[in-house]
Amino acid sequence: MHNKGVFVFGSNITHAASQLDNVSSLPLELSWRIFSYLDSIALRNASFAYKRWKRIILAHKKLREKLNTFELSIVLGSESLVRFYKKNKKALRKEKDKNYLLKGECTTQTMKSTVIKSKRGGSDITVHTKRFRLF
Fold first, then answer.
1. Which of the two residues, 52 and 14, has the higher pLDDT score?
2. For 60-112, what is each residue's pLDDT tens digit?
3. Please, which residues have CB within 8 angstroms of residue 45's CB and are 6 or more apart in sequence?
4. CA distances, 129 to each of 31, 39, 62, 76, 119 (Å)
5. Of 8, 46, 99, 127, whose CB count within 10 A is highest?
6. What band does 1 get if pLDDT is binned at 50, 70 and 90?
7. Number of C-alpha atoms within 13 angstroms, CB side, residue 11?
8. 90 in Cβ contact with 61 (< 8 Å)
9. What local confidence, expressed as pLDDT, does residue 53 receive?
10. Percentage of the residues of the chain whose pLDDT score is greater than 70
């Protein structure tokens, strides 16, 4: 009984190491070296293959940046947009928070006036539709 290993909740701990695949059983430095040879598409596929591989990839800074850049290029559409986004991230964030029109001349013209009669009696409602023209 003592030479078969330690049992925890019915599973044998000594056999847990044999369930690892070849890459996961290697030391982290060697696993990182193997994953560093992959291109971005293969790296993304490897991160989807096993949860353990994804954890190994995300633990290394350069591999994580390579994976994030590739996924951002999928969202934005191209690698050049990713480079532009990374260079101007701060300015883009500031512009995104703005919720107003830029300074400039503005003229308004009433395009249409509509009178809506109330069904319950009382005064009618007049709706003015305006068109703004920015210069």
1. 52
2. 999 998 998 888 888 778 788 888 877 887 777 777 766 665 555 556 666 77
3. none
4. 65, 56, 56, 37, 22
5. 46
6. very low
7. 6
8. no
9. 92
10. 70
94: Cα separation from own chain's centroid = 19
Of 66, 59, 78, nearest to 36 by C-alpha is 66
pLDDT attached to residue 132: 64
Q: Where are the domains of the chain?
A: 2-97
- Identify whether the C-beta of residue 72 lies closer than 8 Å to the C-beta of residue 82: yes
Check if the beta carbon of residue 45 is closer than 8 Å to that of residue 37. Answer: no
How far is Cα 127 from Cα 77, in angstroms, rounded to an integer? 43
| Helix-, strand-, coil-residue percentages of the chain, each rounded to 5 | 55, 20, 30
Q: How many angstroms separate the CA atoms of 100 and 98, rounded?
A: 6
Contact yes or no for 51/45 (Cβ under 8 A): no
CATH class of 2-97: mainly alpha
Tell which wins on pLDDT, 81 or 57: 57
